[in-house]
Amino acid sequence: MKETEINFNIQLDENHIPEKIVWAAPDGGIVGADTKAVLLSVWDDETKEALRIDLWTKEMPVDDMKRFFHQVFISLGDSYQKATDEEDVADEIRRFAEYFADRSGIKM
């Protein structure tokens, strides 16, 4: 069995607000890459609920955050389809992503 790691290092200010986020996924060729936002979800099988860590730096522009969410919504549709093989529901998620883009004023 092989093991791998994905790491996040977060530098916080005196109020515990992220100032810098650096991540690494060596098996994917990423070592010490800066990022401005992380949305991480994990499944707790015991409680049957999603646990989340949502972080973004002070430097993350609102327009970039909107684009980030739009792309996450699209990828959720893709992941949902892959996990369940329910193309119709996945299409609804992707349609919501387009609705979100329109409502949030994202220019694509």
Please summarize what this structure is.
This protein is α+β, with helices and mostly antiparallel strands and 108 residues long. The chain has helices spanning 62-84, 87-104, and strands at residues 7-12, 18-25, 30-35, 37-44, 49-56. Helices cover 38% and strands 33% of the residues.
Explain the overall architecture.
This protein is an alpha+beta fold and 108 residues long. The protein has two domains: 1-58, no CATH class; 61-108. 38% of the residues lie in helices and 33% in strands. It has helices at residues 62-84, 87-104, and strands at residues 7-12, 18-25, 30-35, 37-44, 49-56. The protein has a three-stranded antiparallel sheet with strand order 1-2-3, with no helix packed on it. Strand 2 (18-25) and strand 3 (30-35) form a beta hairpin. Helix 1 runs antiparallel to helix 2. The radius of gyration is 16 Å and the shape is globular. It starts with 6 loop residues before the first strand and ends with a helix. 3% of the residues are buried.
